[in-house]
Amino acid sequence: xxxxxxxxxxxxxxxxxxxxxxxxxxxxxxxxxxxxxxxxxxxxxxxxxxxxxxxxxxxxxxxxxxxxxxxxxxxxxxxxxxxxxxxxxxxxxxxxxxxxxxxxxxxxxxxxxxxxxxxxxxxxxxxxxxxxxxxxxxxxxxxxxxxxxxxxxxxxxxxxxxxxxxxxxxxxxxxxxxxxxxxxxxxxxxxxxxxxxxxxxxxxxxxxxxxxxxxxxxxxxxxxxxxxxxxxxxxxxxxxxxxxxxxxxxxxxxxxxxxxxxxxxxxxxxxxxxxxxxxxxxxxxxxxxxxxxxxxxxxxxxxxxxxxxxxxxxxxxxxxxxxxxxxxxxxxxxxxxxxxxxxxxxxxxxxxxxxxxxxxxxxxxxxxxxxxxxxxxxxxxxxxxxxxxxxxxxxxxxxxxxxxxxxxxxxxxxxxxxxxxxxxxxxxxxxxxxxxxxxxxxxxxxxxxxxxxxxxxxxxxxxxxxxxxxxxxxxxxxxxxxxxxxxxxxxxxxxxxxxxxxxxxxxxxxxxxxxxxxxxxxxxxxxxxxxxxxxxxxxxxxxxxxxxxxxxxxxxxxxxxxxxxxxxxxxxxxxxxxxxxxxxxxxxxxxxxxxxxxxxxxxxxxxxxxxxxxxxxxxxxxxxxxxxxxxxxxxxxxxxxxxxxxxxxxxxxxxxxxxxxxxxxxxxxxxxxxxxxxxxxxxxxxxxxxxxxxxxxxxxxxxxxxxxxxxxxxxxxxxxxxxxxxxxxxxxxxxxxxxxxxxxxxxxxxxxxxxxxxxxxxxxxxxxxxxxxxxxxxxxxxxxxxxxxxxxxxxxxxxxxxxxxxxxxxxxxxxxxxxxxxxxxxxxxxxxxxxxxxxxxxxxxxxxxxxxxxxxxxxxxxxxxxxxxxxxxxxxxxxxxxxxxxxxxxxxxxxxxxxxxxxxxxxxxxxxxxxxxxxxxxxxxxxxxxxxxxxxxxxxxxxxxxxxxxxxxxxxxxxxxxxxxxxxxxxxxxxxxxxxxxxxxxxxxxxxxxxxxxxxxxxxxxx
Length: 1007
What we know:
Shape: globular
CATH topology of the largest domain: CV3147-like fold
Number of helices: 30
Protein name: Hydantoinase/oxoprolinase
GO molecular function: hydrolase activity
Number of domains: 5
Helix content: 25-40%
CATH class of the largest domain: Alpha Beta
Radius of gyration: 30 Å
Domain S-Me-THD-like C-terminal: 768-988
Number of strands: 44
Structural class: alpha+beta
InterPro entries: ATPase_NBD (IPR043129), Hydant_A_N (IPR008040), Hydantoinase_A (IPR002821), Oxoprolinase-like (IPR045079), S-Me-THD-like_C (IPR048350), S-Me-THD_C_sf (IPR024071), S-Me-THD_N (IPR010318), S-Me-THD_N_sf (IPR027479)
Strand order of the largest sheet: 3-2-1-4-9-10-20-22-21
CATH architecture of the largest domain: 3-Layer(aba) Sandwich
Domain S-Me-THD N-terminal: 606-763
């Protein structure tokens, strides 16, 4: 019995045929392999490759159990904005009154948006975090939407329900899909719950992309089936998915997005299989495996987990410039391959390899093939490590160039492999790909470097041996339930799904369990991700196809209508830009904000810069500024320019009235049940109505850190009143009692919370600010754990005395420094130090992150280890003297505990840590709250505590807190170590300096 695997790349199409009864032999059952050029019509390339391996192996075609194909064809259509292959998509949100704040397609690049954007419908439906319905489905609404979609000439629909991960009984999305197709049978609908987990916008984006390529995917898969028919293959057809498992062709035609990135995964799985890793005594439990796939132009590196599957990318994944949430392998690509150009620069003899390449012209342009371009392949031939082409022609390559090029190849691969390490365990590297010949040296930090047999066809072998999976990504409410029983039930659901997808019930096992508690919730809502895998079931000599007649001949009557498509140039859309990234194409160094007569009028560029800076000031918490930035940018796009403005704190009169409004609740809810944008306004209006306030003169942020640092801008546009350049924290803190005026005795009451359904609740009196927090939190839970909130407005005199000044400006300058450093390739911390006091506390690599949820907060600890001398080149580092950091290289680890926000930074002994990581204590504290601690990634953007993970190279900075937090014993008690139960005194990083003012620096006075 035989299986055929095919992998379609951008340059080559690989095929392999395996004898499943000889998988334990030295050849691993591989009977034949083939590599052929990928054709414009991919079906012809597949047909050629499969025909070749069938011819080489001379097997009985009736004994071929299945064909499995991995292809980049679908993702290329998105990445290239190919209008021939993409369809317009209507979006139906099941959300009740919510989510209107950020419409669908908001962060799509303009080119892609112009191709796929269709009408949007906000209908009743969706769930709350506790499983309650936001509202019941309304069939009449769905019928009207279906009719409007058809009238718009659209066939494809994305159905997106709030908290679809909770909808295990298919009460909303699936029922809506059925009703749409009942009312209009010609519609094709995709449910978001089949695509991704929590996070409405990223899940919706992935669902839209899936719907956009449905027509193209169905046509392409028909072509695959036609190719099989032409080769007299009547076995089932499967496609390989992003996670290395199989999906039958019929399902792949409905969920093509799950096959977007299967190429690197096929290489990884094939390499591990060919090297026998995970078989016999070659266990994966005590080592980490990194697969290095070197092609002609690029090298792809990915990690194999002990489960035998690739490490998945964290958080969101960008596809064609669109943030999406679905399972994708984490792949690092570098510009290094067999065709990489080799250059020697100047008298110093510095030799570099890549990133540019001669690509498919290798066999004509490279020296050993008669050309004049020195490539990596020429170097390895000149060194005597390989004989390729006319190898005598490489004898003229200078020895210094050979040595320098080999050293650069070695250095690039070592750095890339280190970035993909998942632990400190020994590393085994599997070297595959046609370009792998360019590595002839041992790699530092690698225990063994192996080239499996058939390494140049590992991708096709990986497709042939792929297994079948069942996966669930749901939210379970565990309060009052037996958690172990709930997990066991989830395991059974995943196993049953794998069996339903075609797995052998005797071979199914759970390979991944993730339990992710949701922060700020009190019902123990936990995201549960479970995956079960098993071998494809074989019975009576035939593979069992889950979908009847998946590729049988009578179905090919439909396939006969398959035809080639128009030339690529006819449909290619090249428009550039993205509403979510207004700084693209802007010279940040020369950009000037629009400040006239003491008023700063906010622009889209300002919004992106402030969002970056608010992330830094969020100190790990405050929620991501991304969604709030999108909301603000959309208001500007729709005519909010001119009303969204900022004035200096000093411009306030003593009797001016300033209001506050912010988001309050759980970020995990607000990222899913996105607001309609009315809840903050409703809370402000509720307080003002109670107090009889008819008008006010300014808007002040409760906290500048994180998403709430931008809430004031939509409020400014809504009321046509300016934002005051200040806030009540100077950072992010987890509770409302951390507002500076309240610490100093000014009233927070009445305090209102409101949702988007017309509900508002007000606390009129309470025994303490802490009690206000607990009462408000309970109300927030009842309202779905995400509300707008507003406290008592305060006078200009109070704001001038008890707010942290110029923090909107500070966020702008911080964001500007980071973006400017990226554009000019300068050190970003050096750039930050030029505009605000900052101390670089540490540069290193995260080696451990522990998390739990306590009292509704995400608590944990991050451990960072120093970089090696070679690793330091991967992340720029400032002069210690400039940033008043440590004068000698630090060998100790840095520990950072967090409660949403980062609380302290202290050194721990590596020896003590490795003896007992859980109990190792800091031996020297170098910074604590209320000073600000931020962890920055290699691009200068702040990392929130949920984003921390092993292997990230980071820099830790500390910034001094405003004296309002440090000059008073009560303020230091509320904002310092005691409040967070840290066993240490406050440790400052330096003297506070008032941030610069954008209004003051850029003001233009009218003549």
